[in-house]
Amino acid sequence: MALHLHNTLSRMVEPFTPLDPSGRKVGMYCCGPTVHDFAHIGNFRTFVFADLVRRYLDFRGYDVTHVMNITDVEDKIIGRVAEQKTTLTEYTAKYQEAFFADLKVLNCTDPHHIPKATDHIPEMIDLIGKLMERGIAYQTADQSIYFSIEKYQGCSCQYGRLVKLNFEEMRQGARVSDDDYEKESVADFALWKARVEEDGEVFWPSPWGEGRPGWHIECSAMSMKLLGKNFDLHLGGEDLIFPHHEDEIAQSEGATGEPFVKHWLHGAHLLVEGKKMSKSIGNFFVLQDLLEKGFEGREIRQLMISAHYRETFNFTLSGLEGARKAMARIDECISKLREATGDNTAEPSTEVIEKFTAALDDDLNVSSAWAVVFDWVRDCNRHLAEGVMDSTAAAAELAAWERIDTVLGVGRLEEEASAELVARMEERTEARAAKDFSRADAIRDELNTAGWVIEDTPKGPRLKRS
Ligand SMILES: [Zn+2]
Q1: Hey, CA dihedral for 208, 214, 220, 221, is it positive or negative?
Q2: What residues pack around ion ligand 1 (CB closer than 5 A)?
Q3: pTM
Q4: How far apart are CA 443 and CA 424, in angstroms?
């Protein structure tokens, strides 16, 4: 079976066929963070989901160009900059840095391009210019530029392809200037917002006067610059379907007259302990909160990708405990496989990889993929215990896991001991040579407490994680 993915445009699971005639190149855009605050774990569910898509496309042999933007200018950011009397760059830098540190903890692959909105103002102005030329955008008395839904629909385009909208309720000429609004408020939306006093120093020159871009035009400009007028995949959380993605389609297709994105993929919401995350009920977590509770990034990642991306997922602390146990089962099996493999190498065993691929080809059915992994762990453990797995067979299973883990990204790498620990180990060797066994044993115990064991190898002693 070839890869199939759900497409929000058709509301169906469809075969995934890239636009590239050779079928290899894939352009993929994921709406990145709005750096107005620390990203919460609901945000990270979307980014880990995007990472799973990226890794799986790589695994399936596609040549992926992955773009994730940084929204570093929009309403909320401007509000905070004004409140804190700081500059836009200074304010956003802190959250950007924290975001990338968190992505690393969650073992997310770096996108190939990470464009920042403030570095692409000319491209946004250019795109708005095209919409003005085509008569789809217009200027209001305050010098702002709005997108006209009526004119767009008049060019035989359809607004509202991702969500059903009630146009009868829409008041002719109604406008919305906020970056985010509800479906009920469907109206002409701002492409360029004329400078107002509250914007402080956040403004740029444009042919229509000083001002700043609307949020939606940012993603249209950055995605088309890096991936072309038409590209394969656009991802985001389901909360972005309206208005953000609907507006992205309208602006892009309105300006180019061509289809924008072939495949729209949306990740569902995350609940925490059964409820919508909220600071007032104490179930609001940023990544750091979970790390402070002693959980590891890979445990959090495992839990986030344990359920299908289109299912609302209930994230709980007991679920994290479960992820910890699941990871320990995998770690134990891998460590036994490593032991049984020794220095041997082999081609990956195909059986488990085929089953894993079949599961993910089916609209990224990750729960089935995990079931394949845990059945495989059980079988490996049994064969190892029965002594029917020789070192070549163990090497083949280990190689299969390494291949699978390029997608899951949860495996523990063989950790290298720090220089400090290695120096302690050498002190122990010297103590033994000097027949100071009580000192040697004390150092060994100290290393064991730190989670390391000393292993004798032909090349001398080395430290291994216990
Ligand atoms: Zn976006």
Answers
A1: positive
A2: 31, 219
A3: 0.89
A4: 7
